[in-house]
Design a protein that fits this description.
By secondary structure, the chain is an all-alpha fold. It has 3 domains: 110 residues, no CATH class; 248 residues, no CATH class; 27 residues, no CATH class. It is 64% helix and 1% strand. It has a two-stranded antiparallel ribbon. β1 and β2 form a beta hairpin. It is globular. The mean pLDDT is 92.
Amino acid sequence: MRRSGFIFAISFVVFNLNLRPIPSGDTAPAALLPLSLVAAHTTTLDRFAAWYRDTGFTNTAWFTRSVDGHYYSSFPIAVPLLVTPLYAPFAFLDFRHMPAGQVILLARVLEKISASLIAALSVVAFFHLIGKLADTSCAWLLTVAYAFGSPTWAISSQALWQHGPSELALILGLLLLIETTANPSRVLVAALAGCSAGFAAAIRLSNLWPCVLMGAYVALAKWPSRSKSAFAAGALLPLLAVLAYNLRIFGSAFGTYPAAWLLEGNLFEGVTGLLFSPSRGLFIFCPIFLFSVLGAFLWFRDPKMSHPRVYLICLLAAAAHLLFLAKFRLWWGGYCYGPRVLTDVVPCLVILMIPAVRLLNNSRVWKAAFAMALAFSISVQAVGAFCYPNGHWDALPRSVDEQPQRLWDWRDNQIARSVSAGPVLLPYRLAWVSVTHPASLSETLRHDGVTLW
């Protein structure tokens, strides 16, 4: 317990050292919906959609107007529901009569706290998961890689993207699968494993692959029928709940996701871009994941390791996720830092490193290579946490969504532009004002806060 508390505390502090969220319009509904639920007991977002529209945000695709005339989140409802309890202490505030801009500012602050809390919990869960698959020293090393050398830091912990909760659900699902395999008669644990798998798919459609793979694991496992039934029931519960909500509000099982539009991209372009492009490539932003490829190769050569089906789940889930997202028309994920869309399977990619890490014990060359790759990966994630979006690479000189060939510009890439622009200092100025001139903090926040967040 003490070790878990230490891991959580370190992760939570590091994730918040930049003193700000790094939000996107895509995360706005997830930040606002819990307040709407707490204050008005509704999932509608009418006045927030109006505020964004009236204040000059021309692209408000984050809100969808349903046939009932109300505005709803364009994204799955699972993440806002997950974090709503964290907003409960603010239920005493009269949100309905507060200016919309003030509520949005508060929501953005709570968004960062919620996102970093979920990410820190995922780090703790990941440490325990790796502890089931490898020795303690390997668990510590790969937990550092997961927490700080991957988009868990620069993406998941910074705003309420779907990725952080996806990571947590996937990690818990795998951990509980292993726990149930050790004692198949534990029906409750099996049900929680299924609930984690189903919740991952409910959070993000692309997580259907690991959910199905975990279901196949259970079908082939030597579990009693009660435990298998409990897993299936647990998995179906969140999926059916989201399905019912989507049908009720949008009249479609997939909500606002148009299935045909998702798969309009060029597969080769998407795969090479997600792995190697200078402004979105996984191996460029996180070269530590080259050891995932090496680990997968070593596992194929010698699959006689503990829990081999867990490795197989991770390998197939990562491959399916990559191929699915590569076919997405906007495979680069719009305005964001690095390979955001691959964040969901980061736990799988780090698990695949385990066979490669075992090489480090017998080779100084491999140990040095791993250390350099990890140090570079952590440094690049720190650039994302402290500097992005300074430099405004996504938008200038022309929007990356309009000119995606910019993703392959090595001379003007996102990492270099962000480093050159330097860190975002406004949060520290706000913190200084709160200490030295607390009476003027409210006015300073009104002037700079919404601009920042």
